[in-house]
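Support request, please re-run this one:
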Amino acid sequence: MHESSRKKRLVVGISGASGAILGIRLLEAMRLYPEWETHLVISEGGRRTIEHESGYTVAQVRALATECHPLDDIGASIASGTFKTEGMVVAPCSMKTLAGVASGFAHNLLLRACDVTMKERRKLVLMVRESPLSGVHLRNMTEAASVGAILLPPVMTFYNHPQKIDDMVAHMVGKAIDIFGLELKGFKRWCEEGAGN
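Re-run finished. Output below.
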């Protein structure tokens, strides 16, 4: 396939922090962009959180992605830097996954894909989810940021006048895909109509 005709690729990781809906809504949003494909990997904790927190089955979440990769498949396409992607979003990103990213401990496909994204100087967005944060968490966040990761904790915003939890989730998804040059319909920026006024 000619390079110009190839679809853009986004790797999506769902790890075991609370907030599985962030990854689910991200996958749903990416389906609005037919020129993109998504490659999904879910940790064991992520599977449990999907089942516990959302109205989705793991199979339904997997079906939202263009391709889904088993967590233990270190030979998957997304484990190699020669497999071209625009980057990766981990939504949500657990403190365990953050620690793996910060230390380079790539013991499963999710962490290996993060490691590949960083070594290839692609965008790695970590939607870290924990509260309160310990000194260890903060140190790992600083370390990950120092080697190129973009830390995007799903912090509530109010200037966009959210009416329900889904509005807050959509806003965070909008911020995440904005990093890749995508505009989510309904995403409200500061000082635009309906936001901050």
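The two ends are 48 Å apart (CA to CA). The mean pLDDT is 95.
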